[in-house]
Amino acid sequence: GLPSYLDELSVGDEPIYRLRESISDDGTVDQQPYAIERVSQTPPIYVLRNFVSEEDAQIIAQSAYLSGQMGQAETYADNGQQARPNSTTAFLSHDVSDNPTPSAPIVDALSDEVGCWLVDADGRNCWAEPMQVVRYTESGRFVLHHDSCNRVITALYFLNGVGGTWFPLAD
User: Fold this and answer.
1) pLDDT tens digits, 14-24
2) Paired residues of 19 in beta bridges
3) What is the pTM of this model?
4) Which residues are within 8 A (CB) of 138 and not within 5 positions of it... i.e. 6 or more apart?
């Protein structure tokens, strides 16, 4: 489950401030401050502000493009309508052997932080899906749909600082 400090955070409370470690190209460890704000009690939804640096966001976006995997998103809503019109998508693994791009260490660090640190405070081994990078063009959107798997957590990173989402069942 969630660590107690996240579980006890209520909608409207002051954000919690934390540090995320990242390793720069020269091998030095940088600490990036970010804020955690709860925006829904049920289901538990949090916004992490400044969690991904601008530099890391650029590297992730460029790696998705350069991977040669960017293709039309193939997610469909329950009514058979394409769920991501006007968008392309690629998956970036956090495993360097599957993702030989500069983004691998960044994706790995984000997966560890979100997957293990937020979900499993006991430090047990966790598994995270490859990071899905989606590029929306003008009028692109993601319509309401249901994923076929039972995810414990979904993390959305808006790499360009622009974007939004809607949770119709959130309080």
Assistant:
1) 999 988 877 66
2) 33
3) 0.75
4) 86
